[in-house]
Specification:
Helix 1 (13-24) packs across helix 9, helix 2 packs across helix 3 and helix 6 (114-122) crosses helix 7. The chain has 214 residues and is α/β, with parallel strands linked by helices. It is built from 9 helices and 8 strands. The chain has one domain (2-112, 162-210): Rossmann fold (3-Layer(aba) Sandwich). Strands 2-3-1-4-8 form a 5-stranded parallel beta sheet. A 3-stranded antiparallel beta sheet has the order 6-5-7. 47% of the residues lie in helices and 15% in strands. The mean pLDDT is 94. The structure holds BIS(adenosine)-5'-pentaphosphate and magnesium ion.
């Protein structure tokens, strides 16, 4: 199963990828997570990407596609993968088809509204160790801003302030909408409401997309 989770910032791509990975044991590849790791380790790529990420812009296609190409060459992807955050432009979608040769199976479009996105992202907090997403109101940790599993402090992503969130949404509408048409034309697009409760969203994807694998 070569699955893409597509949608605006805050639609729940990372949350769904983590839930689906638990059920179906497929590797979760998040270009945002890989890039944040490069920034944290102060690599060449991280230094080139940081300014774009902090201001909510897309990192240039050539840099991201080279990074995805490397990840796709790894040996753990025989049974497939859940790709979160790539492709984000039509040029990236074309590159992915070239890298995979046979293309993807399905792109799940998690749709949601601007109001929901801003509420979710400004309230998001992330575990600095395992990367689990929490939300101050929707999914608070059990105790004192600590991860329920790791007991380490949660942090706020630097691009989760309101001004940058609104810019990320603008960039998404300007640069990523074409990806929907790209997969619609290939008959590979599955629309799921990202506004539902996250367990409900996961159930729908599991039934509609993974049904035959269960
Ligand atoms: P990336 O990390 O991919 O960020 P994003 O696309 O903006 O998406 P988010 O991670 O913010 O949201 P999400 O949809 O994963 O939602 P989540 O599940 O966390 O990319 C960051 C940056 O890296 C980009 O801006 C760009 O600069 C660069 N980049 C990455 N990929 C690139 C590419 N291909 N090309 C170029 N540049 C690239 O949920 C959000 C919050 O809502 C959480 O608090 C969660 O707990 C809560 N929540 C989730 N689901 C629900 C629900 N159903 N109900 C209630 N609350 C929910
Ligand atoms: Mg994410």
């Amino acid at each position: 199963m070569k699955l893409i989770l597509f949608g605006p910032p805050g639609a729940g791509k990372g949350t769904q990828a983590k839930l689906l990975t638990k059920c179906f044991k497929l590797p979760h590849i998040s270009t945002g997570d890989i890039l944040r790791n490069e920034v944290k380790n102060n690599t060449d790529l991280g230094r080139q990407a940081k300014g774009f990420m902090d201001s909510g812009k897309l990192v240039p296609d050539t840099l991201v596609t080279e990074m995805v190409k490397k990840r796709m060459a790894a040996k753990d992807l025989e049974k497939g993968f859940i790709l979160d955050g790539y492709p984000r432009t039509v040029s990236q979608a074309r590159s992915l088809d070239e890298i995979l040769e046979t293309g993807i199976d399905t792109a799940v479009y998690l749709s949601t509204s601007e109001k929901v996105v801003v509420q979710r992202l400004t309230g998001r907090r992330v575990c600095s160790k395992c990367g689990t997403n929490y939300h101050l109101v929707n999914m608070p940790p059990k105790k004192d801003m600590l991860c329920d599993q790791c007991q380490v402090p949660l942090y706020q992503r630097p691009d989760d302030n309101e001004a940058t969130v609104r810019n990320r949404l603008k960039v998404y509408l300007e640069e990523s909408s074409g990806v929907l048409d790209y997969y619609r034309k290939q008959n590979k697009l599955e629309n799921v409401s990202g506004d539902l409760d996250s367990e409900e969203v996961c159930k729908i994807i599991s039934k509609n997309i993974f049904g035959s694998l269960k």
